[in-house]
Amino acid sequence: MMLSASVPNGTAFHPSTFVLLGIPGMQDQHVWIAIPFCSMYILALVGNGTILYIIITDRALHEPMYLFLCLLSVTDLVLCSTTLPKMLAIFWLRSHVISYHGCLTQMFFVHAVFATESAVLLAMAFDRYVAICRPLHYTSILNAMVIGKIGLACVMRGLLFVFPFVILIERLPFCGHHIIPHTYCEHMGIAKLACASIKPNTVYGLTVALSVTGMDVVLIATSYILILQAVLRLPSKDAQFRAFSTCGAHICVILVFYIPAFFSFFTHRFGHHVPPQVHIILANLYLLVPPVLNPLVYGINTKQIRLRIFDFFVKRT
Fold first, then answer.
1. Which domain holds residue 194?
2. What's this model's pTM, rounded to 2 decimal places?
3. Is the distance from CB of 117 to CB of 75 less than 8 angstroms?
């Protein structure tokens, strides 16, 4: 009663600001923890920026596989940039406060861009399936118009499925609760502060995770199973080895993207005995490690891009 009397009604329902604690119990180590995260963020910016520059400036690389890689680099840059700058500000500058609408904006972009990247990974798996299993029809199936529509669908799907998160948070009263034990704003982290039932948030979040992201995982797995079956039929052992090495690297990155994400997602709902430090560190890694690894696996592992990176640096030395 004292709280509701001391703050305006609107503030009691929705706080004007939230406080992001960072990693609870490890505040003394924040300065040092930030160093590897900052280093990985710089690697992600440099790696994805290089991939974008090479693909955009070289018309010979304006092909389906490289255009999808370009879209992946854009989503990677946005994905890690939605959280890392604020996290570094918390760790180094002790800037823990974030506005209510700023928090909802961050939440929206974190989940929307994650869903978009999941769709892009599915599109890239489909691209590899067509290239290996339907090589004669590759250019006719994946022409410029189709690629544009796929890219737009990836973005729109993320926006449409995540926008209800904002509506579900807006309907909740917070009764003055405004401290989030995390480094960034995510849907269930905000919802748990509410002083009302969050069952709709939980049900919709599970529905999106299982029906959207879960379906992406199933379709990606199906694509790579079909690809591996086609690879095993190749007459050349060298061709089989190259295809296996490429697919193996791609699968590793996909696992790094999805496993920590699903762990973080289900920990919020069912993992009451998981230490919060473990949950928060993994929640940050699934937004940062893929943007660091993707340029290496999808870019450096691709001969044409590797050669152009080499030429790029040779010309400047």
1. 17-308
2. 0.88
3. yes
